[in-house]
Amino acid sequence: MDNGSLDGLFEELLETESLFKNKEVLRPAYTPENLPHRSNQINNIATVLVSALKGHTPSNILIYGKTGTGKTAVARYVGIELERKSDHLNVQCNVLYINCEVIDTQYRLLANLAKQFGEDVPMTGWPTDQVFFRFKEAVDSRKQVIIIILDEIDKLIKKGDDVLYNLSRMNTDLENARVSMIGISNDLKFTEFLDPRVKSSLGEEEIIFPPYDAEQISDILRQRAAIAYKENSMDDMVIPLCSAFAAQEHGDARRALDLMRVAGEIAEREKKNIIEEEHVRQAQEKIEVDRIVEVIRTLPTQSKLALYSVMLLRNNGHRNVTTGEVYNVYRQLCRNVDTDILTQRRVTDLISELDMLGILNAIVVSKGRYGRTKEIVLSVPVESTKKVLLEDYRLNMLADFKPILTAQMHL
Ligand SMILES: Nc1ncnc2c1ncn2[C@@H]1O[C@H](COP(=O)(O)OP(=O)(O)OP(=O)(O)O)[C@@H](O)[C@H]1O
């Protein structure tokens, strides 16, 4: 495409009437100001945190619930409202938000907290105690209540719970300030691995977020659609269908919002002036493919080699791919990329794992006197899978690899 036609394309895209009024409100970073079907949870959290407005220490809170049940949105919303109220009342109260999936070591957590108080702490290099000391001093420099929201807290404790122990005991050393924590997790069992003292301190209050049902998700979508999309831009069936798909998973509002956004993008790309049921179905498929592609991207190399072997066999017209044949090709690939060759047993296990992830489907079949084997079919689109596999630098050199195949037996 020359520059002129690209310019023309931009012009054309800019002139196309958009279905969206404000797409940003469908993105994960947006915190809605109104959260239907979560008033109980909002009230429970507010009831605990109100102590902060009186200058007392709120109990620590643990929030549990599956993904997309509004835990983050509710905690952030209550945090924003609490800060607003404290400004109004002239009480010093700050809510800090940390996502422990991103900030996943004790050191980085403390350094990040210290920085939020203007302390100049390097992101690596100091003894952890020193960083903690700096943070404590900064917090205690005036009378204030600090609430630390630790989202995905289970990711943090994978590397030890010392930091939580120290934070939960911090108030005993403070003269002016008070600190409390809100931990958020979608893993109900993560506290099993905690030091019992940390466990009882963190879980002073526990709040559960149940999954939404399809009706509740519809309410959430309707409210968001009103601010995200222009009027009359969707068929009446779009919201019920997005809700039904999301409720099938486990009542995940994030999934429903993603579906509604992607359906809008697809309709827009097709230059339609209304989103239809069909666009939701295409969006569901696209999100599922994207999810699987992401799973494949993060597979260990050995699993990628096993998967690539299946693909090469199918490319060569093998209709009934068996584990024995996969193993034969897998060994050739390993020799080419100079990596360890696992046993056939181990490779069969890797294939079962790929089956569980929904990447392929292995069915056990009896081959009469030849015993039993697995026949393997891919459950993912070949082209996009091949593309992600070849992104791995070790597999990249196998792009044009032609395996030597044994004659296929037809029984
Ligand atoms: N009751 C609700 N009203 C409006 N929007 C909601 C509601 N519940 C969830 N959402 C929206 O759904 C999406 C997912 O919610 P949120 O991030 O709070 O889920 P979560 O429970 O924290 O999930 P995870 O455990 O995966 O982090 C967000 O975009 C949020 O704005």
TrEMBL record:
Instruction: For this entry, list what GO says about its biological process.
Output: DNA replication
Which residues belong to any copy of the Cdc6 C-terminal domain? 307-389
Classify the source by domain of life: Archaea
| SUPFAM superfamilies xref list | P-loop containing nucleoside triphosphate hydrolases, Winged helix' DNA-binding domain
Could you say which residues form the signal peptide?
A: none
| GO molecular function annotation | ATP binding; ATP hydrolysis activity
Tell me which UniProt keywords the record has, alphabetically: ATP-binding, DNA replication, Nucleotide-binding
Q: Does the keyword Nucleotide-binding apply?
A: yes
| AAA+ ATPase domain boundaries | 57-213
Keyword ATP-binding set for record: yes
Residues involved in ATP binding = 69-73, 212, 224
Q: Kindly list the residue ranges recorded as spanning the membrane.
A: none
Q: What does this protein do?
A: Involved in regulation of DNA replication.
Q: Which family does it belong to?
A: Belongs to the CDC6/cdc18 family.
| The protein's name in its UniProt record | ORC1-type DNA replication protein
